[in-house]
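We were asked to recover a plausible sequence for a given structure. The inputs and outputs are reproduced exactly as logged, with field labels preserved.

PROBLEM: sequence recovery
POSITIONS: 955
GIVEN STRUCTURE:
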């Protein structure tokens, strides 16, 4: 045992003594993900603590002070400046300290713990017609504690300003473990015994301010977005010694915030959105002063690279409503009645047309279109990180701000500065507040590239100061910009900042290296040159192969959202960082680096992090940078178990296409056997849960009868690929699909006996998968260019994506290009005048995750609405079974927890509505959830089948 290990064990033992039951994690498997936030930096912590109360925080801080161990508070971990990583103990407030303690609708205040996610607060306050004003783009996962730490703003900062303006009081723990409340009158101890300490601290602060009155008045608070440094102006006599506001934006360097009382605002009664097109972002910025005269609630800007990437990743229909242009502004207007708002919008549009810079402009009336447009803007950081051309860009100078009237001149000079260093930047941000976010194609992997970055950042700092601006407008200084504060402030101001921190944290243990005594801005960078790994998947879209693929994750954390999209079902079920897409990607990055995770593909820590990944592929669509964790997991499992005995379920479930084909020859006796005691024994031997009923195998006779009936006398226009799941468990779907397609003018020739290889991919048996896929491609590519229609969405997705990426041949790509889901075929290939039989008015729908992720704009929900179904109640998430995952004994509980999120509540309240689920695993999960309700999920083909007795009947 090393000295460092003994010291860490002694330290964690001391924490356990002071706070029995406090969860503290150590070791690379637990802490690896916490070495990163959404910045360029990597700082592995010694331990991660998960406090449940302020008393737990006190215990950690006292133990850390005794041992001289640094402390870094952390919320959602979405900091872009390196504010949320540190070398000692990271306090994760998001896991347990996430309660809304009180909402006082009359006083328009809320009291919340530091780990409350902004959207959770907004959902709760909306019930009272109230909202929390600041709304960062990360609102679905950022925490109030993090927003307070950075003094965050958001898309509507033109109206609502910064977080500090909405803080009434902060409940804090000082570096020596004293609990106190900071408010607009000063600091107040929670324990009277600490009164003397708090009084001395307050006296020191007043002395500091008194000694620097002129300095503070002239250098601080000059523009609305001046977040850099400490906000000492709030301690001036004329501002009433508002210590709560002074502590906002201190980035965890002065005290640890455990809870806050915040001010709420009334929800707008009416609003509208204008989208305005321009030739470039400078032209857009020129119009901002004119727009501000109309008192907008939001003025947001972005350039064409973000829009192009969104359309490439999620389909052309993912961005609608933008006028012609290469840069755009979103302008939101709000008011008390819609007519007045609409009049203002029309007047603004006319005024801007008169300015002569617009390439186009329109009022966006559709709420769905508005949501789509806001998502493009909110995903800006991720979309800009990995562009459609494969280029990578990074933060570091992503948060500078100037006065809005100076924005155009600043951007004009800033673009010249980029060009002089041969750098490219993707621009977006809060143009109405003069705050520009930009991600730049820095080369941080070479010494030459780092030298360019340092020169650029120094010159960029000087440039923004020349334009009267600030290094940071809402993200904080962090590790990225603290070294540059001396460019913006005088030496006396820097000394005053240091004195302010020293009053609170004389030992320098709170978030060291940030703001005061900063680490060099190029220290602890995560990016470096890494060796190319020999992999089975080709990763054709990532220049550095597997290492480049896992590097896609830049930490923006959309996978930690509780709602919207499908990603990430396991995180939504467990709430654990390591069970998020981001946590897994960070562990894979650690594996590739080989420093804390040293055993590469054999790593048990990485295997454990990947264990609860359902391989749903939702991240490949929902993640702004296109992380595809299902593929990374398949590659890892392949390498991890190469030459080794695998888990039993990899054999029993991974080889299911083969065993199910054999079972079809004796389906009746095998089904009877599996329903009895021997079946439970076989399930246990195969690593399969006994809490599910094994689906009944269909006989080969049933399959042959179905396929014979599916044949038509017409010349086939398409191939109906009869996948392994349809063949083995529900051949009736093949018959229904064939009839519906023929009725829609798409006569099909059934193709049986082939397999997409999916089950071998999901269990990481890639060598077998490649052989299976190669055989399938050879059979389908024999000069035939007819569409290939696949009833099972997961198999369609495997043919569309996994087959070309694993085989890497032109033949595989030709086959992939021909693949359609059943819903996609009806969308794209059906006769224009075709309509299905009468359909029920209301249905419940579970869309397969692979279909959601792979076949953009071709989803069953859209088709059902087009066919006249009035209400499509779609379970917005994974069903939880996810192929082999939910059948594995170790994963049953997680599978059911995922189902509880969206699907089960709908099954429990069907009210006679039919349930549609094209995916076999989805249908199987529905059957399991329904129990004895006598409900069977229908494939869309069965609902539309012209031969059905009663389409949509639940039997």
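RECOVERED SEQUENCE:
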């Amino acid at each position: 045992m090393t000295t460092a290990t003994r010291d860490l064990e002694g330290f964690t033992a001391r924490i356990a003594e002071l706070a029995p039951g406090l969860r503290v994690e150590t070791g690379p498997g637990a802490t690896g993900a916490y070495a990163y936030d959404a910045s360029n930096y990597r700082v592995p912590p010694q331990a991660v603590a998960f406090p449940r109360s302020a008393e737990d925080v006190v215990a950690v801080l006292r133990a850390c002070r005794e041992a001289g161990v640094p402390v870094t508070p952390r919320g959602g971990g979405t900091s872009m400046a390196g504010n949320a990583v540190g070398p000692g103990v990271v306090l994760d407030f998001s896991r347990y300290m996430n309660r809304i303690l009180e909402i006082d609708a009359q006083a328009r205040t809320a009291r919340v713990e530091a780990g409350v996610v902004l959207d959770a607060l907004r959902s709760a306050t909306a019930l009272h017609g109230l909202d929390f004003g600041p709304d960062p783009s990360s609102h679905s996962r950022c925490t109030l504690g993090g927003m307070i730490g950075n003094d965050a703003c958001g898309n509507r900062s033109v109206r609502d300003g910064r977080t500090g303006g909405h803080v009434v009081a902060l409940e804090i723990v000082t570096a020596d473990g004293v609990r106190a409340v900071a408010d607009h009158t000063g600091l107040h101890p929670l324990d009277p015994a600490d009164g003397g300490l708090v009084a001395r601290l307050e006296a020191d602060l007043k002395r500091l301010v008194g000694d620097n009155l002129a300095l503070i008045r002239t250098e601080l608070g000059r523009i609305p977005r001046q977040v850099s440094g400490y906000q000492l102006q709030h301690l001036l006599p004329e501002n009433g010694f508002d210590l709560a506001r002074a502590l906002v934006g201190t980035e965890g360097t002065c005290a640890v915030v455990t809870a806050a009382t915040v001010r709420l605002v009334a929800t707008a009664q009416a609003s509208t959105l204008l989208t305005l097109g321009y030739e470039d972002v400078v032209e857009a910025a020129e119009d901002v002063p004119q727009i501000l005269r109309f008192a907008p609630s939001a003025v947001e800007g972005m350039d064409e690279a973000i829009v192009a990437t969104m359309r490439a990743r999620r389909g052309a229909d993912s961005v609608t409503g933008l006028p012609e242009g290469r840069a755009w502004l979103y302008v939101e207007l709000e008011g008390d009645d819609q007519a007045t708002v609409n009049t203002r919008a029309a007047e603004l549009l006319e005024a801007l047309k008169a300015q002569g810079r617009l390439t186009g402009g329109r009022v966006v009336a559709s709420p769905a279109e508005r949501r789509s447009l806001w998502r493009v803007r909110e995903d800006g950081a991720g979309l800009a990180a990995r562009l459609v051309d494969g280029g990578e860009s990074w933060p570091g100078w992503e948060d500078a701000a100037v006065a809005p009237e100076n924005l155009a001149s600043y951007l004009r000079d800033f673009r010249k500065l980029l060009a002089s260093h041969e750098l490219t930047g993707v621009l977006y941000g809060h143009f109405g507040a003069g705050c520009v976010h930009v991600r730049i194609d820095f080369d941080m992997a070479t010494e030459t590239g780092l030298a360019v970055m340092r020169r650029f950042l120094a010159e960029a700092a000087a440039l923004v100061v020349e334009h009267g601006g600030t290094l940071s407008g809402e993200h904080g200084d962090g590790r990225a910009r603290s070294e540059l504060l001396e460019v913006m402030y005088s030496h006396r101001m820097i000394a005053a900042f240091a004195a302010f921190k020293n009053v609170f944290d004389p030992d320098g243990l709170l978030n060291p290296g940030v703001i005061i005594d900063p680490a060099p801005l190029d220290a602890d960078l995560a990016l470096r040159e890494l060796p190319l790994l020999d992999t089975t998947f080709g990763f054709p879209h990532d220049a550095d192969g597997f290492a480049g693929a896992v590097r896609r994750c830049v930490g923006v954390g959309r996978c930690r959202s509780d709602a919207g999209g499908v990603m990430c079902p396991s995180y939504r079920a467990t709430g654990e960082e390591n069970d998020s897409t981001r946590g897994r990607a960070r562990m894979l990055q650690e594996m590739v680096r080989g420093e804390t995770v040293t055993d590469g593909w054999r790593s048990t820590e990485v295997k454990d992090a990947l264990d609860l990944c359902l391989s749903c592929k939702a991240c490949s669509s929902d993640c702004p940078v296109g992380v595809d964790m299902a593929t990374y997991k398949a590659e890892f499992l392949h390498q991890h178990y190469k030459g080794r005995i695998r888990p039993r379920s990899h054999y029993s479930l991974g080889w299911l296409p083969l065993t199910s084909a054999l079972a079809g020859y004796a389906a009746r006796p095998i089904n009877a056997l599996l329903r009895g005691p021997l079946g439970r024994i076989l399930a246990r031997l195969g690593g399969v849960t006994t809490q599910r009923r094994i689906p009944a195998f269909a006989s080969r006779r049933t399959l042959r009868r179905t396929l014979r009936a599916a044949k038509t006398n017409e010349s086939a226009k398409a191939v109906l690929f009869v996948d392994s799941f349809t063949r083995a468990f529900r051949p009736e779907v093949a018959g229904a699909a064939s009839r519906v397609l023929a009725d829609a003018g798409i006569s099909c020739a059934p193709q049986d006996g082939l397999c997409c290889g999916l089950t071998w991919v999901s269990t990481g048996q890639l060598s077998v998968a490649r052989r299976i896929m190669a055989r399938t491609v050879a059979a389908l590519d024999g000069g035939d260019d007819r569409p290939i229609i696949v009833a099972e969405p997961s198999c369609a997705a495997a043919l569309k994506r996994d087959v070309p990426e694993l085989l890497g041949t032109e033949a595989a790509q030709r086959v992939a290009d021909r693949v359609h889901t059943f819903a996609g075929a009806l969308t794209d290939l059906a006769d224009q005048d075709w309509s299905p039989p009468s359909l029920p008015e209301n249905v419940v729908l579970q869309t397969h995750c692979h279909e959601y992720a792979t076949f953009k704009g071709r989803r069953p929900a859209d088709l059902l609405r087009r066919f006249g179904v009035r209400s499509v109640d779609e379970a917005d998430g994974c069903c939880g079974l996810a192929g082999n995952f939910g059948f594995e004994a170790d994963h049953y509980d997680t599978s059911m927890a995922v189902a509880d999120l969206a699907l089960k509540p709908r099954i429990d309240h069907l009210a006679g509505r039919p349930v549609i689920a094209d995916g076999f695993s989805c249908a199987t999960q529905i059957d399991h959830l329904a129990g004895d309700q006598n409900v069977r999920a229908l494939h869309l083909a069965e609902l539309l089948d012209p031969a059905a007795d009663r389409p949509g009947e639940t039997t």
